[in-house]
From TrEMBL:
Residues 18-265 form the Calcineurin-like phosphoesterase domain. Keywords: Hydrolase, Metal-binding, Zinc. One of its GO terms (molecular function) is manganese ion binding. Monomer. This is Manganese-dependent ADP-ribose/CDP-alcohol diphosphatase. It comes from the Eukaryota. It comes from Vitis rotundifolia (Muscadine grape). Belongs to the ADPRibase-Mn family. It catalyses: CDP-glycerol + H2O = sn-glycerol 3-phosphate + CMP + 2 H(+); CDP-choline + H2O = phosphocholine + CMP + 2 H(+); ADP-D-ribose + H2O = D-ribose 5-phosphate + AMP + 2 H(+). Signal peptide: none annotated. Its cofactor is Mg(2+). Its EC number is 3.6.1.13, 3.6.1.16, 3.6.1.53.
Amino acid sequence: MGSANGLVSVQGKQPLFSFGVISDVQYADIPNGQSFMGVPRYYRHSILVLQRAVQKWNNLQKLKFVVNFGDIVDGFCPKDQSLNAVQKIVDEFKNFDGPSYHMIGNHCLYNLPRNMLLPLLNIPSFEGRAYYDFSPTPTYRFVVLDGYDISAIGWPSDHPKTLEALKFLQEKNPNLDKNSPVGLVGLERRFLMFNGAVGKEQMEWLDSVLQDATKLKQKVVVCCHLPLDPGTLSPEALLWNYDEVMDVIHKYNCVKVCLSGHDHKGGHSIDSHGIHHRVLEAALECPPGSDAFGYIDVYDDRLTLSGTDRMESTDMIFNP
Ligand SMILES: Nc1ccn([C@@H]2O[C@H](COP(=O)(O)OP(=O)(O)OC[C@H](O)CO)[C@@H](O)[C@H]2O)c(=O)n1
């Protein structure tokens, strides 16, 4: 038996395939700082975490691809350095011996508009859309959602999606600072400017992909920067319309696991339909010398996350 971060791996059973994971690198060439809540953030060290991740992923010699769960560069990155900083992190991912799949987070959008960001991240896009799917094996499909589809950040200020997001925030959050949850209660605390929603068109696309996956008997892993289940941790981190997205997902039986970032301390929950929700611990909040990245072995009946250091290992077992 081998052990990684408290998890005893099942020997003798070959995974169908394996992939690497990392989230919230939030690199910036600036001194250490802290979050709004006072949690230390190590902006220069986070690129070293990514470098060690890539080295480990390459050494494993079995990973088919890696997934970056967003927030590649921090919002405090001086804006004249944003382009270089994003390019620098993308280049680190290119040192991995295989494809990297990226998604956008709020901090990406504080740095660059969508039209610049999406080509750099190699996100297949039409009219600024940042959702897509891919199928690494015939029996599995990955769906990458764009949690900032309806958002007050990232689109031009007069774009209909910006206006829709601002109107929504105006209705849902009475604070002058729309990033502040003061006075919002329970799950209402997600109605913050640093979050966003999945729009109507993307929702229809998601429905059609899940319908197709069901027809093809594929199991689906949903990836989104923003968490989709209130059971995982902080309500402040949730996608605005996580409930509508989950209603679509729950229509089908094909989604087995939802993976996300954004809520830096990480978490794991299983929802009422037996779907695992795993929020990944942030690379940014690793004190120097420590790490937060991992890889996932995919089987017919489970996804097994082997985490390094601050990333907890998690066995996600489901009904095949
Ligand atoms: N209670 C808060 C929290 C944050 N802000 C301000 O909102 C902006 C973004 O916050 P930040 O912590 O940098 O966002 P992250 O994406 O790194 O992390 C998301 C959280 O972990 C989700 O729980 C920033 O300007 C903050 O100062 C705020 O006003 N009030």
